[in-house]
Amino acid sequence: MLTALALWMALCAGAFAQVRNATVTYTYLGVQLRGYRVGEEFMIPLDRIIELGWSANSSSIGSKIVAEGKTYQVPTRQVDGHTCVALRELIQKMDGISSWIPGGYDALEVVSAITSVSVRSGAVAINAGLKVKPTVSLMGSNDPKVVIDLEGARLAPGIQLELDSTAKVSQYRPNNVRIILDLPFTPVLPQKQLANAQSFNLNFNSPERLIQNPTKSDPPKVNSTKPDPAPPIIVEGEVSVAKRNEDEIATELFVTVPKPGWKGIATVRRPARDIVEVAIPTIQAKLSDIEKDLSKHIRSVQLRQDTGLTVLSFKLTGRMGAVLEPSSEGFKLTIVHPTGSGSLKGKVIVIDAGHGGKFPGTGNGPYTEKVLSLATAKAVQKALEAEGAQVIMTRDSDKNFRDSLADDLVYRADLANRNSADIFLSFHYDDAGSTPPSGTKSIYHGGRDTDKYLAECIQEFIKSEGPLPNLGAVNDRKFARDSGFSVLRNAKMPAILMECAFVRNPNDRKVILTDQFRDGIAKCVVKGLKLFFGQK
């Protein structure tokens, strides 16, 4: 206890000299959270702990953190108005590994430590400090080897290995541990994707034994560096399309595929603005009769074979959104309709300049996020008002609305709700650590088809006319997997959050302070909104 207290006091004594904005990338999740670098420690605000799937209860003596199924008592400290805990100290207690990425970017990386691996006759036991993402596959074709990849992990310095002669363990990539099993029998792989976890007990035993002492007539072993998937099973039959539900917002179609036997993942493609295609792998099928007048928004439905795929093509009356969801018999295809004629006149649009006041966001100086987001928001405001839209700004100066960031975010969404806004737009700037990409992306709340369509409409013009590369429409659960972004989740109208650029990317930094850049973003937003509202 005294040692921990002394360590904490030493941290605090050195920390007051310098506090810098910093980011942390967490294991296989790819979740990137913002906090503060204090010396060699990363101080993470308690209200951001929840984005890791953890919980925190604060008291006068510190905070109780529940993480990865265990409870930890840790001291707290106020940093820049936030109650924070020392993340690196906590990760060490959890048998994780954290390190600052070289290059002076104040970006921390957290991975799990693989503490033990045991392999005996096809039975595998793995233990890790933090959850890892496992993938099991086969490598080679004639004499296949089992490959177990553990994403978001590194071998612990004192790892306990108990391996028989069939197993090899290595640090395959910087954050990927690989286990290869060269078994003397045909392995039995798991029937479904393994869940992310801290420990695994797998058994690849099979009654179908291979010859252990091959003769000259046996085919030679194939040495391969990449997993070689089993050949797909081609299923034959019919594909049918039926309308399940339709209203002014969307048409829900139910697509059935040949069963039983079909296994695969269908994907949506958009070869033209008014065409949506669904590519279905590993089936050879024909289109069954579809109901007459399937939808007034669909001109025709056709099916064709295309290099191992069955492609279902929908000719639409114009640009529309498309969302695909799997089901037990096939999948549901939701066609999202535009509403209106494309005019923005009279539309109530709430523009949120991200951060502000005591919540600066990422960056510093003229590149501080709260400064950049406000300048961009004002450019978008001007462009929308020129189109006749009624614009409401959450802020037009450097201020925050609530003492905690969580409450501040809720306030911004509630402002849009109270004004019965048609659209909510939140503008931000990103920071992706040591190797930030260049570009602009629009983030929507997972599960909201209309929001996704709004993001796609704006990104369509970012792609063709934007000042920076198009990084696409992105589900917010990619960053906060359990609940998404508060400011989007709490908005009751179509809402997106635009990450306009990366403040540490050299290419982006050259342009983001210019009027030309901000006006370029504003132009794409206006054109995207017109498309969303039905412009042909």
Provide the fold topology.
Blueprint: H1 2-15, E1 19-26, E2 31-38, E3 41-45, H2 46-49, E4 55-59, E5 62-67, E6 70-74, E7 76-79, E8 82-86, H3 87-93, E9 96-100, E10 107-120, E11 123-139, E12 145-151, E13 153-163, E14 167-173, E15 176-181, E16 197-203, E17 235-246, E18 250-256, E19 267-272, E20 275-281, E21 283-287, E22 298-306, E23 309-316, E24 321-326, E25 330-336, E26 348-353, H4 369-386, E27 390-393, H5 405-418, E28 423-430, E29 440-444, H6 449-465, E30 470-475, H7 486-489, E31 495-502, H8 506-509, H9 515-532
Parallel strand pairs: 1-10, 10-13, 17-21, 26-27, 26-28, 28-31, 29-30
Antiparallel strand pairs: 1-2, 2-3, 3-8, 4-5, 5-6, 7-8, 9-10, 10-11, 11-12, 11-16, 12-15, 14-15, 17-18, 18-25, 19-20, 20-23, 22-23, 24-25, 29-31
Shape estimate: flat
Quick one: CATH class of the largest domain? Alpha Beta
Number of domains: 4
Strand content: 35-45%
Low-confidence segments, given as residue ranges, are: 1-17, 206-232
Mean pLDDT: 83
**Separation of the first and last Cα atoms:** 69 Å
CATH homologous superfamily assignment of the largest domain = Zn-dependent exopeptidases
Q: Structural class, from helix and strand content?
A: alpha+beta
Radius of gyration: 27 Å
- Topology-level CATH name of the largest domain: Aminopeptidase
- Total E-strand runs: 31
Quaternary state, please? single chain
Number of helices: 9
How is the main sheet built?
Answer: 13 strands, mixed
How much helical structure, as a percent, in the residues?
10-25%
- CATH architect. name of the largest domain: 3-Layer(aba) Sandwich
